[in-house]
UniProtKB/TrEMBL annotation, chain A:
Tagged with keyword Transmembrane helix: yes
Domain ABC transmembrane type-1: 72-263
Family named by the database record: Belongs to the binding-protein-dependent transport system permease family.
Source organism superkingdom: Bacteria
Gene3D superfamilies, alphabetized: MetI-like
Membrane topology value: Multi-pass membrane protein
UniProt keyword annotation of rRNA-binding present: no
InterPro entries, A to Z: MetI-like, MetI-like_sf
Database matches in SUPFAM superfamilies: MetI-like (SSF161098)
Main subcellular localisation: membrane
Protein's UniProt name: Sugar ABC transporter permease
Species in which this protein is naturally found: Paenibacillus glycanilyticus
From TrEMBL, chain B:
Organism per entry: Paenibacillus glycanilyticus
Protein name (database record): ABC transporter permease
Record keywords: Cell membrane, Membrane, Transmembrane, Transmembrane helix, Transport
The family this protein is said to belong to: Belongs to the binding-protein-dependent transport system permease family.
CDD domains from the UniProt entry: TM_PBP2 (cd06261)
SUPFAM superfamilies named among the record's database cross-references: MalF N-terminal region-like, MetI-like
Stored InterPro entries: ABC_transporter_permease, MetI-like, MetI-like_sf
Gene3D superfamilies registered for this protein in UniProt: MetI-like
Main localisation: membrane
Residues annotated as transmembrane: 29-51, 91-114, 126-144, 176-198, 219-241, 247-270, 282-303
Length: 278, 318
């Protein structure tokens, strides 16, 4: 009995290792390829015969004027606002939906959920026209502003589920001690939903890092480019310098990966616990 | 409390209801203060644009001059004269038809693999989640484009098995399949939702099934699948909606080509709006997409009655 259990464990591990490698294989290849010459790109070996570190140093120097340092700085600054806006407002809005019994709450919550199903294409054209009229083109405001409006329906929904899981007795106790709804939110609920807020912060960071479409629509001048936009300039060149492109692409995913690795537990469990139980 | 209130004189009862009304007023105010960030954004960036978009879909508008009313001209042109419309719709439907089930199947399998208590599970999870983490970024598109070249790494792997590969992205017969594969490779968020669902299935169900001598396959079909059906439904609905809007992969990896074989609907719409600045035409296209997505979702909800199982129904399969 014990022996079969052990065998089972070993085979499980084996299966997972093989599968993980399979999933990561393109990424491993990517690391090697980022150090190759274009001619060597299709060679069978994963590792280059002589690593071309120039791909990184020359690739980093995007143009005589700008380095990737500038683009990373731009993107991180934008992300800082996005994360702050998303975490702050989604918590506030979710508390309102989860704990306060106001008129039309049910209907408004249903509408909130419905907006998750609305194709972005319907609103993007008028939004573009609106920002154009407000002369907000080529600024970060169209990219940042939406995050200050509750951070997105998905996050609000996630947090509402999470807050519903907090025993109401805690609220009642605070109410008896003379706390207002605002006090309860600030002193009781906010500290308790920290794990879920970490999830919101990570998702916001990763998704807006990848949200290339909006960045492409609203940013024009190279000095304001995000990492994604700069990479696209590399892709659009007539003769693509694959080594440099792959090197910078690899660097561009580092922030998300580092963040994910350190918050991995909350990330998966933050979602798991928002369900019925932990 | 309740019983007391009944015995109180009318005046006192009136005072009580007044107090209640006052507190509900206060609740209304507090509630709307709390949800105001969302409400404001909803009105400004969703409701107003929807109205605007609907109006624009009946106009010709190039951003430079005021919109001119053309009635149903845009719609007539789309349905009668625009071959790009039919092409992109066809491409998108094929994409949805293949990528949604593939992704669902694949992510469920992976979620079941990861739903075990093993040492080092965190490491496996990170490794397997990795491709999704880097998501629809340019970085992945660049990687993908290189790997599936005629001289790319993928063909090299195939040559080990004696298979002569093609230029997967430059061949109109395989380009769409390549994008479907890319989409499936990034199954992460779907998988995480499945994983969360699997964790909520009570272990007792499996244990009692084991006592009854049920096989693994039986357990899967009679416990896992029914218990997971609400999650499956959620992933299916969002998967279909999301796939209809696929953009970045087609935009960066294939640019819609070759010969429009990957000309996705969202890409077509983008070209009309932001390349040709035909805002009215693009709005009409957006409304057609909205109707299609709404229809698909409605069908999904109707059909769900026959296969989605909710525990709260008192265990009745609906």
């Amino acid at each position: 009995m014990i022996k079969t259990l052990k065998n089972n464990k070993v085979s499980n591990h084996l299966m997972l290792i093989v599968f993980s490698l399979l999933m990561l294989y393109p990424v491993i290849w990517w690391v090697g390829a980022s150090l190759k010459t274009t001619a060597e790109m299709s060679s069978p070996s994963i590792w280059p015969s002589t690593p071309i570190w120039e791909n990184y140093t020359k690739g980093w120097q995007f143009s005589p004027e700008f380095t990737f340092g500038r683009f990373f700085g731009n993107t991180l600054l934008m992300e800082l606002w996005n994360v702050v806006g998303g975490v702050l407002t989604s918590a506030i809005v979710a508390y309102g939906f989860a704990r306060i019994n106001f008129k039309f709450r049910g209907a408004l919550f249903s509408i909130l959920l419905l907006t998750m199903m609305l194709p972005g294409q319907v609103t993007i054209v008028p939004q573009y026209i609106l920002y154009n009229k407000l002369q907000l083109m080529d600024s970060y405001i169209p990219l940042i502003l939406p995050h200050f409006f509750g951070g997105g329906a998905f996050f609000i929904f996630l947090l509402v589920q999470f807050i519903r899981g907090i025993p109401r007795e805690l609220d009642e106790a605070a109410k008896i001690d003379g706390s207002s709804v605002y006090g309860i939110f600030y002193r009781i609920v906010l500290p308790l939903i920290k794990p879920a807020l970490v999830t919101v912060a990570i998702f916001t960071f990763i998704w807006s890092w990848d949200d290339f479409f909006a960045q492409m629509l609203y940013l024009n001048s190279v000095g304001k480019f995000t990492v994604g936009l700069a990479l696209r300039m590399y892709v659009d060149q007539f003769e693509i310098q694959w080594g440099r492109l792959l090197a910078m692409s690899l660097l561009s995913v580092v922030p998300s990966v580092v963040l994910f690795f350190f918050a991995q537990k909350q990330f998966v469990e933050g979602i798991a616990t928002t369900g019925l139980k932990g | 409390m309740k019983a007391e209130a009944v015995h109180k004189p009318a005046a006192a009862r009136l005072r009580l209801t007044k107090k209640k009304a006052k507190s509900s007023n206060r609740n209304n105010l507090a509630g709307y203060i709390f949800i105001s960030p969302w409400l404001l954004g909803f009105l400004l960036l969703t409701v107003w644009p929807i109205i605007q978009s609907f109006y624009l879909s009946f106009t010709e508008y190039s951003l430079l001059e005021a919109p001119t009313w053309t009635g149903t001209q845009n719609y007539a042109n789309i349905f009668k004269n625009d071959t790009d419309f039919t092409t992109s719709l066809k491409v998108t439907f094929i994409f949805v038809l293949f990528s949604v089930p593939l992704k669902l199947f694949f992510s469920l399998m992976v979620a079941m693999m990861l739903n075990k208590n093993l040492k080092g599970m965190n490491l496996y999870r990170t490794a397997i989640y990795f491709p999704s983490l880097i998501g629809g970024s340019i970085a992945v598109a660049a990687l993908w484009r290189n790997m599936f070249n005629l001289n790319g790494y993928f063909n090299h792997v195939l040559s080990w098995f004696g298979i002569q590969g093609v230029g997967w992205i430059t061949n109109p017969h395989t380009s769409l399949a390549t994008l479907i594969l890319l989409n499936t490779w990034q199954f992460g968020s779907t998988m995480v939702i499945f994983l969360a669902g699997l964790k909520q299935i009570p272990n007792e169900l499996y244990e009692s099934a084991s006592v009854d001598g049920a096989s693994k396959v039986r357990k899967f079909f009679h416990i896992t699948l029914p218990m997971l059906s609400p999650v499956m439904f959620f992933n299916l609905v969002l998967g279909i909606i999301g796939s209809f809007q696929t953009f970045t992969a087609a935009f960066i990896v294939t640019q819609g080509g070759p010969i429009n074989s990957t000309y996705m609907y969202a890409l077509f719409l983008y070209d009309k709006a932001f390349k040709h600045y035909q805002m009215g035409y693009a709005s009409a296209l957006a409304w057609i997409l909205l109707v299609i997505v709404a229809l698909m979702t409605a069908i999904n909800f109707l059909v769900s009655r026959y296969w989605v199982f909710y525990e709260t129904d008192g265990g009745k399969q609906k």
